[in-house]
Amino acid sequence: MTKILVIEDNRLLLEEMQTAFQKWNYQMGRIQHWDQVDDEVRRQQPDLVIMDITLPSYDGFYWTQKIREFSDVPLIFVSAAEMDPNAVRAIASGADDYIVKPFASEVLISKIQALLRRTQPQLTTQLRFENYQLNVLTNVVTQGAHQVKLTPTEGLILKVFFMHPQQIITKKQLLQQIWQSGEFLDAAVLNVNMSRLRSKVATVGTLKEQLVTVRKRGYQLVSHANNY
User: Fold this and answer.
1) CA within 20 to 30 Å of 91's CA: 106, 116, 191, 221, which one?
2) pTM of full prediction above 0.85
3) For position 208, what pLDDT does the model report?
4) Within 13 A of 161's CA, how many CA atoms are on the CB side?
5) Among 150, 79, 159, which residue's Cα sits nearest to residue 124?
6) Do 185 and 193 touch, CB atoms closer than 8 A?
7) What's the rounded Cα separation, in Å, for the pair 107 and 103?
8) Which 8-state DSSP code applies to residue 112?
9) 194 to each of 27, 108, 126, 189, 190, how far by Cα in Å?
10) Could you report the per-residue pLDDT of 73-97, keeping only the tens digit for each?
């Protein structure tokens, strides 16, 4: 599970982030000791840091510089201030991206996903779910001696399910993932791609039946046992 350390003291914003992260299966860490932020980063070992500018002890620029002395962890600045000149100062101090309050949670998630893709390119080419494998480079699904080749868009859709098994994925979340990867689709085209995906994977075990529609909520990749 991807761990995101949020260095922010606004309780309402923290709760909103927590809700958004849970939908994408991200684990959220918080700061307990504001005078030891750098030590907290060392201890928690996050995959990504979200840094506010105004903090109880020193500011985000100071702590970013301290973190950069020992870590290259991806870091996004969050601030109520206008982009200039804080954006320039944030990047100069070691931030990778910048977002201005107020912002939609979807925008923050998009920035997180884009930054993780840039900084953690293809940690593995194989994703696994039960006895299925998805090669994210070739878009080939394999189960034992059986395999099927998917289109890039179908591969992206199945990748989301493999990364979030058992979790209900809304159409909006699927479109968000595909859009971030450069594919511009609407809900109607997504429905067509889902139908084609199911037809193709019908030759690979019971994967077609395991990609279920959850009425008025979205889709879900369920375990084999749940089908019986």
Assistant:
1) 106
2) no
3) 93
4) 27
5) 159
6) yes
7) 7
8) H
9) 28, 26, 21, 9, 6
10) 999 988 776 655 666 677 777 888 8
Q: How far, CA to CA in Å, does 186 sit from each of 155, 168, 212?
A: 17, 19, 20
> Is the separation of the CB atoms in 113 and 121 below 8 Å?
no
pLDDT at 214 over 80: yes
Q: Pull the structure tokens for residue 105.
A: 């949670």
Report d(CA 72, CA 54) in Å as an integer. Answer: 22
* Cβ within 8 Å of residue 88, ≥6 positions away: none
What do you get for the CA distance between the two ends of the chain, in Å? 28
Over 90: is that where the pLDDT of 102 sits? no
Residue type, 175: L
CA angle 39, 43, 45 (to 5 degrees): 115
For 1, residues 6+ apart whose C-beta sits below 8 A from its C-beta are 25, 26, 27
| SS3 of the chain: helix, strand, coil, percent, to 5 | 45, 20, 35
CA distances from 190 to 78, 98, 114, 218, 224 (A): 32, 30, 21, 12, 24
Residues facing 79 on adjacent strands: 100
Q: Could you please report the per-residue DSSP string of 149-188? A: EPPHHHHHHHHHHHHSTTS-B-HHHHHHHHHHTT----HH
Q: What number of other Cβ atoms are within 10 A of residue 108's Cβ?
A: 19
DSSP string, 34-100: TT-HHHHHHHH--SEEEEESB-SSSBHHHHHHHHHTT----EEEEESS-HHHHHHHHHHHT-SEEEE
